Automatic annotation (TrEMBL):
The active site is at K166 (proton acceptor). One of its GO terms (molecular function) is tRNA (guanosine(34)-2'-O)-methyltransferase activity. Residues 21-209 form the Ribosomal RNA methyltransferase FtsJ domain. This is Putative tRNA (cytidine(32)/guanosine(34)-2'-O)-methyltransferase. The keyword Glycoprotein does not apply. Its EC number is 2.1.1.205. Methylates the 2'-O-ribose of nucleotides at positions 32 and 34 of the tRNA anticodon loop of substrate tRNAs. It is found in: Cytoplasm; Nucleus. Keywords: Cytoplasm, Methyltransferase, S-adenosyl-L-methionine, Transferase, tRNA processing. Its main location: cytoplasm.
Length: 381
């Protein structure tokens, strides 16, 4: 797998590097804006779950443009952008950065403190949990991130302001829409063309923040305080259907297609990612790779040699932890060097472990399907 394979498979990844965005997600926010005009008149914004920072880059650019326009009319307030993430983010000019968990009361309070006596015009949240592969679990965690973001938003957004957040369009998404409609008269579900069709991700655009009369922002969200809350109580008009808006016309590149490297008559030039992760889970692998490039060979505990290609393949295939990376790298290395009997034996046992893991996931998925069909008797676990 070469250096350019991802550039071929993912045009938005490639364009992000060419245009200087830290992540392909920048195009999602830009395409949402083209359709929904979320930056109009905005001078203060919060970016929740912001790392590596491409949405913050978009905010910085758009808010500066607004500031320059406002200066011409003489009624300008300088832009203010607060960005928060669990992970450390490389600095960005004009962006105040906080590192913390948005589902934690302390982080929420730190963000609110930055808006002491002022209010934000826009809050965006692109929060996504580390995917576990257990769909129900991933969907649950994602929706909890959205609720935590909404809770923080009710403390800092000015009346009339806008909230944009990632949402998974899954079972029971109408509960989330119902929650949002309590605070915003206009709630749209948008799908930018840079968001893969194969992904259940979409983005809610909520306009004209109007909290119910007498509503006082509080920290009693079950997520922030861990108090139980019965969402089943939402019935009737609370289960509303939200209009679905596709952002971007057919002229926009298709995020699920492979494109040739030389596109639209332009000669292809490789670009390094704009901002590489500053503390990635595969940091140890990268240091091994550097050692390798410096000429020293390295080994893992079972004395199997790994070469640069093995490591690149493991990283490209999205190993999310060192343990997973080692597993992938061992399998790849063994497939390339079938004479090492110890390594072959170890690989076989890893493959067996993987099969067991897959079987457990399949069994859990069956459980879900059977429950859905009201047929609990046939469950095989
Ligand atoms: C898809 S990325 C965001 C990409 C970002 N919008 C950009 O354009 O660069 C999702 C982010 O959500 C963050 N995240 C997940 N759970 C979080 C939490 N509980 N609190 C804060 N950040 C969280 C992750 O650390 C990750 O950086």
């Amino acid at each position: 797998m070469g250096k350019t394979s991802k550039d071929k498979r993912d045009i938005y990844y490639r364009k992000a590097k060419e245009e200087g965005w830290r992540a392909r997600s920048a195009f999602k926010l830009l395409q949402i804006d083209t359709e929904c005009h979320i930056f109009d008149g905005v001078s203060k914004a919060v970016d929740l779950c912001a790392a590596p920072g491409s949405w913050s880059q978009v905010l910085a650019r758009k808010l500066n443009e607004n500031y320059k326009k406002a200066l011409e009319t003489g009624n300008a307030s300088p832009p203010k952008i607060v960005a928060v993430d669990l992970q450390a983010m490389a600095p960005l000019e004009g962006v105040i950065q906080l590192q913390g968990d948005i589902t934690n009361t302390n982080t929420a309070q730190q963000i609110i403190a930055h808006f002491d006596n002022t209010q934000a015009d826009l809050v965006v949240c692109d929060g996504a949990p580390d995917v576990t592969g257990l769909h129900d679990m991933d969907i649950f965690i994602q929706s909890q991130l959205l609720l935590a973001a909404l809770n923080i938003t009710t403390h800092i957004l000015r009346p009339g302001g806008t909230f944009v957040a990632k949402i998974f369009r899954a079972k029971d998404v109408s509960f989330l829409y119902a929650q949002l409609r309590i605070f915003f008269p206009y709630v749209y579900c948008t799908k930018p063309s840079s968001s893969r069709n194969s992904s259940i991700e979409a983005f809610v655009v909520c306009k004209d923040y109007s909290p119910p009369e007498g509503y006082k922002p509080h920290m009693l969200n079950p997520l922030l305080t861990h108090e139980p809350c019965n969402f089943e109580e939402l019935t009737g008009v609370n289960r509303i259907i939200v209009p679905f808006v596709v952002c971007g016309d057919l002229n926009q590149p298709d995020s699920d297609m492979c494109y040739p490297l030389n596109l639209d008559g332009k000669k292809y030039k490789y670009h390094e990612p704009v901002q590489t992760p500053i503390a990635p889970p595969y940091a140890e692998a990268l240091s091994l790779l550097e050692n390798r490039r410096a000429g020293s060979s390295f080994t893992f505990d079972h004395e199997t040699e790994f070469n640069e290609t093995d490591i690149n393949i493991a990283i490209e295939n999205g190993a999310s932890s060192m343990a997973e990376f080692k597993k992938n790298a061992l399998i790849t290395a063994t497939e390339n060097n079938s004479e090492d009997s110890d390594a072959i034996a170890k690989t076989e046992s890893i493959k067996d472990e993987n099969k067991e893991e897959e079987a457990t996931i399949a069994a859990l998925q069956n459980l879900y399907v059977s429950e859905e069909a009201g047929n609990i008797d046939n469950i095989l676990i």
